[in-house]
Design brief:
Length: 60
């Protein structure tokens, strides 16, 4: 049996109506989720400090 981690494809950061930065969210979900998607309203600023390296660092 394959042990697969869930994904969350609807997360808001503090650049929209959420309370937490994109990097903090990545830290929180590390080891719990295999993939995430930021879905902020009318903004792509959450992606400014998110990189592939950051995802690799926290295993997301």
């Amino acid at each position: 049996m394959i042990n697969m981690k869930p994904v969350d494809l609807h997360i808001h950061t503090n650049m929209s109506d959420g309370n937490i930065s994109s990097e903090e969210i990545i830290k929180i979900v590390s080891g719990k989720l295999s993939a995430i998607a930021f879905t902020n309203h009318e903004s792509i600023k959450a992606y400014e400090n998110v990189t592939v390296e950051l995802g690799k660092k926290y295993n997301v």
